[in-house]
Design goal:
It is a single chain. The protein is mainly alpha-helical and 911 residues long. It contains 43 helices and four strands. The strands form two sheets. The chain has a two-stranded antiparallel sheet with strand order 1-2. Strands 3-4 form a two-stranded antiparallel sheet. The longest helix is centred in the C-terminal third of the chain and has 126 residues. The radius of gyration is 51 Å and the shape is flat.
Length: 911
């Protein structure tokens, strides 16, 4: 290992010159020399003890050790494993060299030798393998110090050490075995595995394969569950590392151990009123585990959605909802952080899951006779709590209950029944016997008497979710009437009108600094109105029925003391009164609203309100709703991380209340952005249509005395054509003007053009606009003619090129034919000149060939005669022999000639 050579440059850089820290260098060097070259074992042990002491106290000694000591101590660990005392000393010295020394008076940018030593040692894979092998030693301190060294390396160089441990055979298995060791070593191994499994999917799978789930839940149960100490926290943190964004591990847990061991941690045992800091952290860690299971896995996993639904189903089947309601709703003595986390889990548990929604709707809390539905209890938390965090968490529950759940929205809306005036202004403590809707209306109406608009805006937030994307609920709630605060003040008032009045009251309430008391009341009420009026013409008509509503809204858009968000949402509400306005009544139609915008605000300034809102903090920096940081030892070291600290919500750069970053989620922001585009387009369209006024009949349309019907019809026709032409021109100019103003608004310029000008300026501008339009039309016509001429020229050019190519091809073919013809004529002449001389030769050749054929035939005939003679001599000899032995030769030869006749004939025919 070439550790020393790597470290010299670093040490020189830190010391600046060779003389700095020379005493520490020489002392460390002498101790290392005694350890490596010493003869007496006792002297070497004393040297390593002295080295351990000086390295643990001096940064200069840590630097010097890093430059020279690693090879020496690694050699001890490798070659002297039998000397337990030397191995202990070497490991303890390494722990000291890797542990930062805290000097509070030192400069903040001072180099940390311990971090440099950690980086140096983690680069050597052989060193990591050697350390892992020491975990199998029997000595307790050897295993303990080894785990401390590995934890220090993981803390400062996690990626490098993760890769090294993965490359070592059975490296993770040895670490997992430590979980079954003595308590101190087990706890150290838990810390080590927690660091090791962060964002390391391969290591997570191996750890789970080695039985991590069974071992972790066994440790948690042994330590006492949520009542346990920091070991339970470490176990849950390791469990969360294994389940975070890992669908396969979640499925394995669900199908092997199940979720019962996890849910049992949430059961409150013993003194339920006692919540220590560690118990709070343990419960938050367990609730984080539940949340990870409800997420289902990473975003890229195709099985995420199905796994999420299955996990939610199983969790509710295991009665998780009961324990969450106990922690988040019934246990008001529980810490704020635990209640908020439990409420968020309830909201996520029912999101997009119909059976879980039905289960929550059927839950009742309390004991007889004081029992009430769980939804009523959660609504009471929204209306009463003094904690902003708890309000946001409970609001999250109703948001998920109503999301894409029209039946649930209709069920909640059906309970919105106004109470008698005496009940409406009863104290909040008497709302136990109210229905859900009555309690909600109570929260909306109680603000009239005590001036507390906070409960009104919180109830308005819940009402927003009930009305969202549900026309039936909007129409139903639109008919609700509230009694006047005092009978002498008049008839009952529509709920929509009461909410608009509260919006006006909120803008007039100031604190000592002259600023609005509740900077989030107006935006939340405006969110309700924007959601209510969208795609609901009857709500728009109801809003405009009261003439002061439009006037107040125009003033609110122009009010410079309001926030950018309030002015922008008020502008959106005005736009809805135009685009969703189906009324034909004079003074309440869309054209009237658009005309009021143009006169009171100006289209340019009106459109700029949208651009300012889009650039605001709320709309330009939308974050995922309710995102929670993973709970670790570092984040839970201070109770400020888990207490309801309002300072966490504050932002000096944001003029709006920090609570709005949670209420204005990404879905609402995107909805407003799309609605803004729709408003721009429709306002241009409104200005392009004529206003529906009663026209006065001109005198030209009356028939003159003595005028014939034919002439009268001709004159009327000419008059109508003239009027139509003028109307079209006016509409075109109006549409062009509206589009120019819309584009000006989109450009984002803050300067608004004056709305009032002299008559001559308007006439001159109109004349210039006409000239420009005519010139543009002539230019377009000339461009079209030019393009047409260029197209024809190109066509003729292509045709000429094609004809030229065809002519060239014909010429080449003609030349080729001429050459071929000339060649053939030459051949014919040559044949004619040689015709007379070739005939004698042909006759001679014929004669010669005939002669050769005759010679060949004679030779074959001679051969055949010879063969016949030979056969004849054989027959004669055989006949003589047969005569000698007394056979009748003639009788034997009788018929032989006849049998042979046919083949002979065939032979003759072949010849």
């Amino acid at each position: 290992m070439d550790l020393a050579s790597r470290y010299k440059g670093v040490v020189g850089f830190v010391f600046g010159n060779e003389n700095s820290g020379s005493s520490e260098d020489s002392y460390v060097e002498r101790l290392l020399d005694r350890i490596s070259n010493g003869v007496l074992a006792e002297d070497r042990r004393n040297a390593i003890a002295e080295l351990q002491s000086v390295v643990a106290e001096s940064r200069a000694a840590q630097l010097a050790f890093g430059a020279m000591g690693f090879p020496v101590l690694m050699g001890v660990l490798k070659e002297e494993r039998d000397d337990v005392e030397m191995v202990r000393g070497a490991l303890e010295t390494l722990v000291g060299a890797l542990t930062p020394i805290d000097h509070s008076k030192g400069p903040t940018d001072e180099v940390q030798p311990a971090l440099m030593n950690t980086d140096l040692l983690s680069r050597e894979s052989e060193s990591i393998s050697l350390l892992l092998s020491l975990l199998s030693e029997e000595d307790f301190y050897v295993r303990y110090y080894t785990l401390q060294i590995l934890t220090a390396l993981l803390t400062n160089s996690p990626n490098r050490l993760q890769e090294a441990i993965l490359s070592i055979p059975r490296g993770i298995t040895r670490l997992m075995d430590m979980l079954m060791d003595r308590e101190v070593i087990r706890n150290e191994a838990l810390l080590l595995l927690t660091y090791l499994t962060r964002e390391a999917e391969e290591i997570q799978k191996i750890v789970v394969f080695e039985g991590a789930f069974e071992k972790l839940f066994s440790i948690i149960k042994e330590e006492g569950g949520s009542e346990g100490g920091v070991v339970v926290q470490d176990s849950l943190e390791l469990l969360n590392n294994l389940l975070r964004s890992n669908a396969s591990n979640q499925v394995l847990l669900r199908e092997t151990l199940g979720f019962d061991p996890l849910i049992s941690i949430l059961k409150l045992r013993g003194s339920t009123y006692s919540f220590t800091q560690q118990k709070t952290i343990n419960l938050l860690s367990a609730l984080e585990t539940i949340n990870l299971l409800m997420m289902g896995g990473s975003e890229a996993d195709p099985q995420k959605d199905s796994n999420k639904i299955t996990n939610k189903t199983v969790l509710v089947q295991k009665r998780l909802l009961d324990y969450l309601l106990l922690l988040g709703v019934e246990s008001q003595w529980a810490p704020i952080a635990v209640r908020c986390s439990a409420l968020r889990c309830i909201g996520d548990l029912v999101a997009g899951h119909r059976k879980n929604l039905d289960a929550l709707s059927s839950k009742v809390l309390g004991e007889e006779p004081q029992v009430e539905p769980a939804l009523n209890s959660i609504l009471r938390i929204i209306l009463r709590t003094s904690s902003m965090q708890e309000f946001i968490a409970a609001d999250h529950v109703f948001k998920n209950i109503c999301e894409k759940n029209m039946d649930g929205q209709a069920m909640l809306a059906s309970t919105l029944i106004p109470q008698p005036n005496s009940m409406t202004h009863a104290p909040l403590e008497e709302d136990v016997n109210m229905s859900f809707g009555s309690m909600l209306l109570h929260g909306l109406a109680s603000s009239e008497s005590d001036g507390d608009l906070e409960s009104c805006c919180r109830a308005a937030s819940v009402l927003t979710y009930i009305l969202k994307d549900n026309t039936q609920c909007k129409e139903r709630v639109l008919r609700i009437q509230l009694e006047a605060p005092m009978p002498s003040l008049g008839a009952p008032e529509l709920l929509l009108h009461r909410i608009v009045r509260y919006l006006a009251v909120a803008s007039s309430m100031k604190n000592k600094d002259g600023k609005p008391c509740f900077s989030y009341v107006q935006p939340i009420i405006l969110k309700l109105l924007v959601t209510w009026l969208v795609d609901c013409p009857s709500a728009v008509q109801c809003f405009l029925d009261s003439r002061p509503h439009l006037t107040y809204l125009l003033e609110l858009v122009s009010n410079t003391s309001s926030t950018v968000c309030v002015r922008g949402l008020a502008a959106v509400l005005l736009g809805e009164c135009v685009i969703y306005n189906k009324s034909s009544e004079n003074g309440k139609d869309g054209f009237t609203v658009a005309d009021a915008i143009s006169q009171k605000i100006g289209l340019t300034s009106y459109f700029l309100k949208f651009d300012e809102m889009q650039r605001s903090f709320l709309f330009s920096s939308v974050r995922p709703a309710l995102s929670q940081k993973p709970l670790t030892r570092s984040t839970t070291a201070s109770m400020a991380e888990i207490e309801d600290d309002e300072s966490d919500l504050s932002d000096q750069k944001n003029e709006d209340h920090p609570i709005l970053t949670s209420i204005f989620d990404a879905h609402f922001v995107n909805f407003v952005k799309s609605l803004e585009v729709h408003i721009r387009e429709n306002i241009v369209d409104v200005y392009s249509r004529p206003k529906n006024d009663v026209a006065v009949v001109p005198a030209e349309m009356e028939q003159k005395g003595g005028e014939s019907d034919k002439d009268y019809i001709q004159r009327l026709k000419a008059f109508v054509e003239k009027q139509c032409s003028e109307i079209q021109k006016l509409l075109a100019r109006n549409a062009t003007l509206a589009e120019d103003l819309a584009r000006t608004g989109e450009s984002g310029h803050s300067q608004s053009e004056p709305r009032v000008g002299s008559g001559s300026d308007r006439v001159q501008a109109e004349t210039l606009r006409r000239d420009l339009q005519e010139a543009s039309q002539r230019l377009e016509m000339l461009k079209a003619e030019k393009a047409k001429i260029e197209s024809e020229a190109s066509m003729y050019q292509n045709l000429a090129g094609k004809l030229e190519s065809d002519l060239k091809s014909l010429s080449d073919a003609y030349n080729c034919l001429e050459q071929t013809n000339l060649h053939l004529e030459k051949e014919v002449k040559a044949l004619k000149s040689e015709g007379t001389s070739t005939s004698p030769d042909i006759e001679a050749i014929k004669a010669e060939a005939k002669e050769e054929a005759q010679k060949e035939s004679e030779a074959e005939l001679n051969d055949l005669l010879v063969c016949l003679g030979q056969e004849q001599s054989k027959v004669e000899k055989l006949s003589a022999r047969l005569s000698e032995i007394g056979e009748d030769v003639d009788k034997l030869l009788e018929g032989i000639g006849d049998d042979m006749g046919l083949p002979e004939d065939d032979d003759e025919e072949e010849d």
